[in-house]
Amino acid sequence: MKTLFLALSVLFASPSHAGGSVSFQEDMKPLLEKAGETALLKSLEAFQISDSGTATRLGKHTGLGGARVCPCTFEVHSGGSLKGQLEIRTDWKLVNLQGKTVSTTSPDAAILVQDFTSLSLDFPKDER
Fold first, then answer.
1. Chain centroid, CA 100 distance in Å
2. Which residues of the chain fall short of a pLDDT of 70?
3. Three-class SS of residue 24?
């Protein structure tokens, strides 16, 4: 299983990632590496990927309020002015310190578990 355990204090807690933002280099690249997606990462090197992307931010009602979860989107450039969007998707859940899955409203949520599922790369047609 392509599982990555992410403690809130380690991932998505940096002050530079406030307001639902997420870093491709610091957050998503390690997620893809842990999932064994090295060939996919290698193919993404052909594009210029903005390091700052957007993600869903968990609210205060969760045990991990402020944590970011996928889908995450990043602006990408390929050759000249061609601009597109990279979206990374995961299945995610919250678990307590004993490893038991808990609800998003549980104050016992201590770890965010994200499993990489897919990504898409979209370059819209030029609208002239």
1. 22
2. 1-19, 61-63, 65, 126-128
3. helix
Which sequence spans correspond to the domains of the chain?
3-122
- Between vectors from CA 112 to CA 107 and to CA 113, what angle results, nearest 5°? 135
pLDDT tens, position by position, 73-91: 999 998 777 899 999 999 9
pLDDT for the residue numbered 65? 67
Structure tokens at 73: 């989107």
The amino acid that residue 110 corresponds to is: A
Question: Which positions ≥6 away from 9 have C-beta within 8 Å?
Answer: none
Give the C-alpha separation, 73 to 85, whole Å: 7
pLDDT, residue 31, reads 92
**The pLDDT of residue 116:** 94
* CA 46 – CA 6 distance, rounded (Å): 28
Which residues have C-beta within 8 Å of that of residue 107, sequence separation ≥ 6? Answer: 63
Beta-carbon contacts of residue 104 (< 8 Å; ≥ 6 apart): 58, 61, 62, 63, 94
